[in-house]
Fold each of these.
Amino acid sequence: MAAIEMLPRLRERYRLDFVIVNGENAAGGFGITEQILEELLDAGADVVTTGNHVWDQREALVFIERYDQLLRPLNFPPGTPGKGCGLFKARNGQEVLVINAMGRVFMNDLDCPFRAVDSELEACGLARGADAIFLDFHAEATSEKEAMGHFIDGRASCMVGTHTHVPTADHQILDGGTAYISDAGMCGDYNSVLGMEKEEPISRFLSRIPSSRFGPARGEATVCGVALETDDATGLARRFAPVRLGGRLARAEPEFWLSE
Amino acid sequence: MAAIEMLPRLRERYRLDFVIVNGENAAGGFGITEQILEELLDAGADVVTTGNHVWDQREALVFIERYDQLLRPLNFPPGTPGKGCGLFKARNGQEVLVINAMGRVFMNDLDCPFRAVDSELEACGLARGADAIFLDFHAEATSEKEAMGHFIDGRASCMVGTHTHVPTADHQILDGGTAYISDAGMCGDYNSVLGMEKEEPISRFLSRIPSSRFGPARGEATVCGVALETDDATGLARRFAPVRLGGRLARAEPEFWLSE
Amino acid sequence: MAAIEMLPRLRERYRLDFVIVNGENAAGGFGITEQILEELLDAGADVVTTGNHVWDQREALVFIERYDQLLRPLNFPPGTPGKGCGLFKARNGQEVLVINAMGRVFMNDLDCPFRAVDSELEACGLARGADAIFLDFHAEATSEKEAMGHFIDGRASCMVGTHTHVPTADHQILDGGTAYISDAGMCGDYNSVLGMEKEEPISRFLSRIPSSRFGPARGEATVCGVALETDDATGLARRFAPVRLGGRLARAEPEFWLSE
Amino acid sequence: MAAIEMLPRLRERYRLDFVIVNGENAAGGFGITEQILEELLDAGADVVTTGNHVWDQREALVFIERYDQLLRPLNFPPGTPGKGCGLFKARNGQEVLVINAMGRVFMNDLDCPFRAVDSELEACGLARGADAIFLDFHAEATSEKEAMGHFIDGRASCMVGTHTHVPTADHQILDGGTAYISDAGMCGDYNSVLGMEKEEPISRFLSRIPSSRFGPARGEATVCGVALETDDATGLARRFAPVRLGGRLARAEPEFWLSE
Ligand SMILES: [Fe+2]
Ligand SMILES: [Fe+2]
Ligand SMILES: [Fe+2]
Ligand SMILES: [Fe+2]
Ligand SMILES: [Fe+2]
Ligand SMILES: [Fe+2]
Ligand SMILES: [Fe+2]
Ligand SMILES: [Fe+2]
């Protein structure tokens, strides 16, 4: 997997203190296995977030209980295996609160993600237990994503949207100091439909009949993500930039780290 | 409106031969009036495309019949006022086929956009009636947008997705020569929810109750779009780049036009 | 309104101890006004339940605080005006717990109705505070309705589904003793689309364009509902039958009350 | 399967000239096999209609081409195997046009069912090629079903809705002479969720996690359907009544046939 191969180099190149990877499609597009989780952690991920595909590999319902570093959406029903947020120690010694929540618009029927996130931010805030706070908001609609960004603006270091598999170009630091991007995109081949070989998805749109299984596209991957630097005093965002390396998309790097 | 103010300067700065604007939210976020359409055309738009909000101002049902330059989605039901595509003369004398279609995933119940677009491309193809072909695919889901892009790859100059109001960073020229971007984004204030003041949308997500009307956010606008250069012989894409000017988003310009 | 005219006669004819009316479309199809609520209460309703249309008349957001007898769905967000359940005294002196909840499948994004209802049933159960318990589950999908029925079977006297505006013929007493019907239907003219004049809805399905407002169909109404008799000792259902009177639908009456 | 066992007796008891069965869930809840289709035809079905589950058993994509009596929704994409309507000879010698169409509200993305049905009715109408015309409209929303009923009122003998698996009690002959019911219900055990054992569906609503497969409920089935008598001269409906036999639902029979 592209992210696994690239991570060690990226950690070194950018001297990263903390790395978060969304792994909901890590197993050939469908969920995550324990082995892949181990590989991601070995490659340098500190936390692996997920989304609607988290249980595609049913073993995840079991092994998630053994890995604090694996999160599933916070607003899943009470009693769901695993946890939706956690406090983690970064390499620089800072405490990082990572929250994984899921949107409802055009998605599953879940309890309110706004209230769920709010409740975590009340329990552990910037300069009140956490040196940095990161939200992976796994959602479809840009309206819900932007609303969530503004909802937590000033209370978290960063919100990164996921789920559409396409990076957006609206990265910005909101007025309250929270870095925001609607979608980080996927790590995969962008000559595809959502990272999967394009023939079968196109065929289904035309015929409404599945004719074969979805398989991951095998072209060169683009590793997509964001680079964030937080203020040590406030925990808010100082610098924020997209990362897009390899494959077909326009290259993007956090220049501010390279020039130093 | 930001696009209207900026267009004359952009036409000159980039020496544009043909300009397409999506105007479905031109009237304060809801549809388009005849007056605004006139202003857009005066400012230099050659064609104005739309989407699900096209009839928000009901007068559009009437005046669309008088303006060839105003398109509504092609796959609206037979009998719908207006047209979904047209052949237009560019300033350089080329014939440009512009198609406006709408997706179905998480959208309205419409007839198949793939078949509708296919039928237009069969009737008038590159080097068979059109020097360039442009599709505004107004859709929500990235899966449907990417599938459409690949579906017309090699048969059109460019597909630009619209509707999410957020620009994507996946602009590329597909293998067959068709320029593609999942979403062009909106022209408006990105300190907002979809261009609207953020308080009311946030409040509705939390309370599920409308408490006031949506109003457009009044901060500085970012004009978002794409720049396309086609090959005179084939009509396929030669160069393709995002444009983001003003406001809060990271500036992007088609360097290839400025350096010449 | 048909229900208002008919209620006094029905109370007398069947010697009813307690009457519940869903009033979400009482105001010409859209919500409920204080005046109509008063009329319903005067006509003999003990409790008025609602659903997704509850706030169509915005005054309801205010006056609901003054009427214990008006319920809105229980699983609306915390902070929503009004209440989702209440304990009411029947004419025979019994305490009746009435719960109003709303489904999520094909409906609004709300918190889990199963957990919300469960929590009320835990707080006040049959023979533990309530002599009878009635749930109006306002939902679209028969899957969610049937699942809710079985979920509360043995813990409530009755679940009546609402929202589709069409009575179902699946009334039964479930194995645990809870009376169940997927939908009670509406009180209105069944020569219509959901009680509204049929021309505009048909036109919208064909054209996808609103051409006029919806207005209620004015033909003779069928009053639709159910008749329930509970066991004084257990609070569970003893007899359960549909009621359909007047208008175009096949007449149905609770024979067991008339023969006594 | 309940319908297969019951059909021969029903054909005789009511002296039926023509029998239509919806078989989309005939194979343990998921689609239909060739063997089950054969059994249905042997048991006395003249035509078997389907719906969104038609291809659950993939063999149906192949064998449907060999059976004129098996219909899939008319408004599936062009090129879909099988047909959406057909003209069949009844035992009394009359020509019966049977149409199977599928709704779009809360269902799949398909082309307009209203236009598709209209086109068939234009091609072959009552007293213009067909002695009777029957539409199985497989749809979720009562709004779309009622709109379709009125849309074809006077042009078909009967529209029966299917898909919710719950019979409705709104059977009537519309003003133009077309018999109408929103849903015929299923043939199966009504101590269930849509005919499936109830534990797993309830569990999924609560946990949002599949924990086992759906299996059909094994209690006594109720055979649900409708009885229609058409006018020989006009092809319109003369008498129309629900049929519900066996199992947990209130028994219903077409009295008009028994008293003769
Ligand atoms: Fe994903
Ligand atoms: Fe996802
Ligand atoms: Fe828009
Ligand atoms: Fe739109
Ligand atoms: Fe209603
Ligand atoms: Fe409703
Ligand atoms: Fe179905
Ligand atoms: Fe079915």
Note: Residues D 24, 51-53, 138, 163 surround fe (ii) ion (ligand 7) (CB under 6 Å).
Amino acid sequence: MVDVGGKAVTSRQAVAEGFISMPPELIATLDRLKKGNAYEVARLAGMMAAKKTADLIPLCHTLPLDKVKLHFESEADRVRVTCTVACHARTGVEMEALTGVQVALLTLYDMGKAYARDMVIGPVRLLEKHGGKTGSWQADAL
Amino acid sequence: MVDVGGKAVTSRQAVAEGFISMPPELIATLDRLKKGNAYEVARLAGMMAAKKTADLIPLCHTLPLDKVKLHFESEADRVRVTCTVACHARTGVEMEALTGVQVALLTLYDMGKAYARDMVIGPVRLLEKHGGKTGSWQADAL
Amino acid sequence: MVDVGGKAVTSRQAVAEGFISMPPELIATLDRLKKGNAYEVARLAGMMAAKKTADLIPLCHTLPLDKVKLHFESEADRVRVTCTVACHARTGVEMEALTGVQVALLTLYDMGKAYARDMVIGPVRLLEKHGGKTGSWQADAL
Amino acid sequence: MVDVGGKAVTSRQAVAEGFISMPPELIATLDRLKKGNAYEVARLAGMMAAKKTADLIPLCHTLPLDKVKLHFESEADRVRVTCTVACHARTGVEMEALTGVQVALLTLYDMGKAYARDMVIGPVRLLEKHGGKTGSWQADAL
Amino acid sequence: MVDVGGKAVTSRQAVAEGFISMPPELIATLDRLKKGNAYEVARLAGMMAAKKTADLIPLCHTLPLDKVKLHFESEADRVRVTCTVACHARTGVEMEALTGVQVALLTLYDMGKAYARDMVIGPVRLLEKHGGKTGSWQADAL
Amino acid sequence: MVDVGGKAVTSRQAVAEGFISMPPELIATLDRLKKGNAYEVARLAGMMAAKKTADLIPLCHTLPLDKVKLHFESEADRVRVTCTVACHARTGVEMEALTGVQVALLTLYDMGKAYARDMVIGPVRLLEKHGGKTGSWQADAL
């Protein structure tokens, strides 16, 4: 695990996004499946996973997150998930935002898999990050 | 968590795949980055994450996995990850295979992020599953 | 941890219940708080906690649960939570049912604590258990 | 998870209490049960659980606790548990104190359940909290 | 993680032992340190760690342990810890027994470190294992 | 858990070392076993375990580690592991360094156990620690 001891504790933020393709009929009922409201379950799973990032990604530092926020938007045949994470720390929260998105997407898959097995996850990517020595960075449009 | 108590304990298997796009120069050095061999770190992270699936996906059952195997193939500008999981249980291991792939991909991202921030993860999907009441299923070619 | 190796793997079930007292105005809005739907958050928290029982209670065995189900009923000035757990194992799931109730109640407290700090949790108790050498047991009416 | 990034890092403290009713004969032997000293097991379980609060309660922030202290008092037919938690953080430790009490009570139940299944947990509540924007708060007498 | 799916579920057992050297004055007070009874804390820590073996050792399978038992013996200038683990599974519990011993020894170190920093842990080794294809094995005398 | 709230947040460091004896033929192939490169697996296991110290050792505080570094040296008939940990915190990281070494040693055992069961772990000890009220400390030569 890279030594971040010489870096300053500063305010850090990162936003990641990801998609999962689904049949429109499934998207139409995601908020009232027999197993529950898929958005709500995915929101909590993503939030809890972001807190566990250092337990999942071997070289990640344990960071005391200030904020984790997931947002869901349904499109015609896919759902978009974004995860915003903020922290005061010696290193950034990009992996936390990406982990939140990935586990939220996995959870949407799990909630829907009784209806469709061929859902496809992706693209998943970092949208922006702020703070730290390298400052702000923003992804190009896809 | 859906009641699986009435289902039989049978042999179950699932295979998932996923991709991460990366600059060719990064792919060329993934096995000897300053932080370590990215494939080896991702392999272990994926394996350990597959074992933690029920701790990440709220409605997943805790399953005593018999086997978790990750495989990596580098292509010109992306890396392909597959995860094969097997188990004797009352429910399938699709989510375990997908979780193994997702966390391996996240770990590749983490290992490479000092060199490129605009890597994109996906598509990630289930390739096949065997066992259980619904028997075998195979994904169509993408 | 007591040796259960000599016991038979049989079907086990347990139901626990618990209460949290709250101001009626808070109960009236629990399903649409600014932080989310408190019932849904508590349901998932209780379910995930039941799966972690052996990690919380030192002498509990790790059991592969078949089912965890939480149920919420709002009364005039309190909310009732029940948790039903089922398993095929060498020992019972009483602690899993109680843990599910306790963490669901804690989560309701957490969701409501911006509105009222003097909520009181209890009584929490085992309602019934089935299976194993001692067979079925049912609590007396309180 | 609510954004606490704008709050100041200050010294925070919370105390929670809880009870479990038990047959007097069981209380008399709690410190020398066949499974061990129930107070000692419950003390450690409560302490370790307080450290895991953010892993149990979905919207809780991960906090680096400075202190966790559990205390047990046996009365005629019940045991009283208090848990005191302190921290320097951007948000309070009320949930950590309550979680410590709840898991200590569950552990007492687990230690005693071979002797009595009808033990009842409760009332469990916050006794006091200090620090943060809202300052000190103290519960009314029950 | 090696595929154990083709192996039979049989009764497995393993015993490991380990030592920690300590000043005799510290050993004399281990059961009543200011921080608690070191044996009791180490016993619970070892037990809980044995249950977490698959979360610590990357290639270990998650096994539903039937029994974990720790035993402590104080000698003139060291403490001996043994850990016995039993399970019905497709693979053995050697790593679980060793992990139980290692974490119990670490905990004894933690309990005593305010009094002596130069305590030395070891030797730690497997004493015996039973069950599985390779049957019983016993360590030679050291 | 001892109250460290009154202590200052300062830079802390600790180094621990440990050994595992192995047959020379096994040492010669540790980096290319059928199960993988044992050093790489042990390195990651030790790193991840150091981050989990507070979850393993009951009275340890949760610390946001700045750095965890493992190093392996093979000798004629044993492997030496060192673990260096650094942190800005109110208490030291001795237990984190020792835990990293212990779990790395356990993992080497696990990787090699198909070839030799009589490997012996130890001696394991703290080599040095810096920072905090008591300042620097260094172990005597063994």
Note: Chains C and F do not touch (no CB pair under 8 Å).
